[in-house]
Design brief:
This protein is an alpha+beta fold and about 220 residues long. It has helices at about 25-35, 55-60, 75-90, 140-145, 150-160, 165-175, 175-190, 195-205; strands spanning about 40, 50, 65-70, 70-75, 95-100, 105-115, 125-130. It has a five-stranded antiparallel β-sheet, with helices on both faces.
């Protein structure tokens, strides 16, 4: 796998990378680990070439995706076939969006080919896992730290981003509604947001980055 840097703006030619210059694989792995989405790199047969930390956690839970002798697969016979079809189609250049389900559990997965059509079949396919409802938004934690929010304010902000109303937040946190309103005013003051709507929109636009590197180095299979 390689990541080729594009030429941006009017950069000096000496600082530009051409498409045939490879980024070291260890750096590529760390890039995947810094993204706040589960990412699994597989070959056209579904053998795992690398999985970032969030993907390893998801596969280890075995809710919808599992690992079987180094292969990523669905948790049921039906989803096994669906995952294989998606990977093989992506290896032929056709992007796929899978809606994998196992009982009450659901997981959207995008199968992305990592090659240009004129290059022939792909040696690798990237599986991009959807973020699960209720999962910790690590970018929100990063945002909270950057703006000096207290743990209580961060908790209120997280609830607002999940669509909770003020009275629901107060009840869930065991505090008065007036306390939550005070925390919201503090949130707006610290972040410079003119409204809660603006603040939530800013959170939705954050880059999917983790606050502290959890990269563990190259891994050849999901665990």
């Amino acid at each position: 796998m390689y990541l080729a840097a594009n030429n941006f703006g009017n950069s000096h030619p000496d600082n530009q990378r051409t498409a045939d210059q490879d980024v070291p694989s260890a750096i590529a792995w760390r890039i995947l680990d810094e993204l706040d989405y589960g990412l699994i790199l597989v070959d056209p047969e579904g053998r795992v070439q690398h999985a970032n930390h969030l993907a390893r956690q998801e596969v280890a839970r075995g809710r919808v995706l599992r690992s079987d002798q180094g292969m990523v697969c669905g948790a049921t016979p039906a989803t096994r076939d669906e995952v294989q079809r998606g990977i093989r189609a992506a290896a032929r250049g056709r992007r796929q969006l899978l809606d994998l389900r196992h009982g009450a559990e659901a997981l959207p997965v995008a199968c992305v080919p990592l090659f240009h059509p004129h290059e022939g079949a792909s040696a690798s396919v990237l599986l991009m896992l959807g973020r699960q409802p209720g999962a910790q938004n690590l970018a929100l934690t990063f945002f909270a730290r950057a703006h000096g929010l207290t743990p209580a304010e961060e908790s209120v902000l997280r609830a607002l981003c999940q669509g909770c109303q003020v009275d629901d937040i107060a009840s869930g946190h065991g505090v008065c509604i007036s306390t939550v309103r005070t925390q919201i005013r503090s949130l707006r003051d610290k972040t410079g947001a003119s409204s809660i709507r603006e603040l939530v929109q800013r959170l939705a636009a954050l880059p999917p980055v983790v606050p502290v590197s959890l990269a563990m180095g190259p891994r050849s299979a999901a665990q």
